[in-house]
Amino acid sequence: MDSTQLLKGVLDAAVLAAIKDEDGYGYDIVRRLRDAGLDDVGDASVYGTLRRLYSAGAVSTYVEPSEGGPHRKYYSLNDDGRRMLDEQRSQWSRFANTMSTLLHEAPARRATLRKIGDKS
Amino acid sequence: MTSTTTLSSVDAFAAQVRELLSDLPRDEVDDLTDGLEADLAEKALDEELGDPETYAEELRSAAGLPPRNDSTGAELRLRWTRFVARLRADPFWSKVLGFAVALRPVWWVARGWAVWVALGFAGTDGPLKFLPLAAVVVVSVQWGRGKWLPGRVLRVAKIVVSVIAVIALPFAIGASLGAQNAVRYSDDDYFPPQGIQLDGNEVNNIFAYDADGEPLSDVQLFDQDGKPLSLLGDGDNAYHLSDGSALVPNPAVTGGSGWNVYPLQSSSIDPMTGEPDRGTTPQAVQPPFPRVQPLVTQGERDGYTVTSPAEDPAVKDPLPAP
Predict the structure, then answer these.
(1) Who among B34, B38, B62 is closest to A44 (CB)?
(2) Is B203 helix (H, G, I), strand (E, B) or coil?
(3) A41, A54, B148, B159: which is deepest, by most CB within 10 A?
(4) Which residues lie below 8 Å from residue A58, measured CB to CB, with a gap of 6+?
């Protein structure tokens, strides 16, 4: 399966996680995600996501001049963003567990799975 | 370190992305692309920048914004963006484009001035007319800088004003040049009077008398260059006089070019057409003198006294041949 399709649903969480310890500017965040193993992540997708998270009030921004070049816009996670990250982390855990179960176990437990699936 | 070439291609790429997002509110575009150059410059070190259209679409969809509204206007703008991108890719045209972009402030001022002329202020008198000029130029420059344009209505207004200015500009330039010329050349730059002149007065007929002082008819006159001494051109068919009649070219010359055959004959004017009456034959014009004094000839040496033709009916008699 194309991993970019998978990525779409979790990009918010990935971007929030990438700046949870240290503020970052656009391409810096892209690099962090790639270094973490998300090789296919598109930089424009990350910037768009950052913009959306900013609109949602999850991240704050500030501008700093870069050495000898155009200025850079830094993103930092605020309290709302941390809450959102926590929420998405638990959502992801449940989802990942579910998927693991689904992919690895026998079809006998389908009923339970459907219930969780409905919820998410 | 990034080379200059990469920097300019980064700028071009960023400019295209912004243009492709231009259907969005300006604030949105600014927020979405703030710092884009810095990010792209770093990206350019690692990989190809790729296609700006794909990039803009990705940016848009990730930000949860609606896809580009491909109305006719948007489609045209997209074509324009692509066209400019192709020009930028060419070294020569990118230089021309750079030059043109550097001249944009000139256009902003010219747009303001053209609007001022088009509004009719240029023709008014007094120094107060420059107040509106200052006002429209300031607005035009601010518009050029992307300021003072809140809302879609004003942006459309800017386009309309620009189009009007582009159309009005040649006329405005022509009018102002003409006004200057009129001042500068009012003494010597006017058309020389047409026809024949004598000491500044118009000559509209010529009466020739022969050596005996008798009036001649149907005399063909030419100047020193062999040019017919025509009262009017070949195409003209009447020289209107103040008494309501008109002089006409000699009918004996074909093509209406008998304007150098004197004395010119007169014709009445058809009140319906304003043209010479074709039904009547032209009449001879009364000469200023029935006859004039004969020339000095052998006869004077023989004791013949020359008198004014008006006073002495004797001149009527032809002189005996010498």
Answers:
(1) B62
(2) strand
(3) A41
(4) A16, A77, A78, A80, A81, A84
Mark residue B68 as left, alpha or beta (left: phi above 0; alpha: psi -120 to 50; beta: remaining).
beta
- CB–CB of B274/B231 below 8 Å? no
Task: Dump pLDDT digits (tens) for B153-166.
Answer: 777 888 888 998 99
Q: How far is B143 from chain A (nearest CA, A)?
A: 25
CB pairs under 8 A between A and B: 74
Euclidean distance between CA atoms B282 and B286, whole angstroms = 12
Q: What are phi and psi of B304, to 5 degrees?
A: -75, 130
Q: Are A81 and A52 in contact (CB under 8 A)?
A: no
Kindly determine whether residue B38 and residue A45, on different chains, have CB atoms separated by under 8 Å.
no
Contact B138, B110 (CB under 8 A): no
Q: Report which of B88, B24, B17, B89 is spatially closest to residue A26, judged by C-alpha positions.
A: B17
Q: Which helix (H) or strand (E) holds B74?
A: helix B72-89
What is the chain A residue with the closest CA to B38?
A: A70
User: Which chain B residue has the Cα nearest residue A70?
Assistant: B38
Is the Cβ of A83 closer than 8 Å to some Cβ of chain B?
no
Q: Chain A residue with minimal CA distance to B56?
A: A44
Nearest alpha carbon to residue A48 among B151, B73, B47, B67: B67
Three-point CA angle B219, B221, B225, nearest 5°: 160
- Which residue of B2, B42, B55 to mutate against A (max A Cβ within 10 Å)? B42
ipTM of the complex: 0.77
pLDDT in tens, B208-256: 998 888 888 889 988 898 888 888 877 777 888 877 788 888 888 877 7
Q: Would you say how long chain A is, in residues?
A: 120
**Could you give the C-alpha distances from B12 to A28, B17, B46, B112, B144, in angstroms and in order?**
22, 9, 18, 29, 19
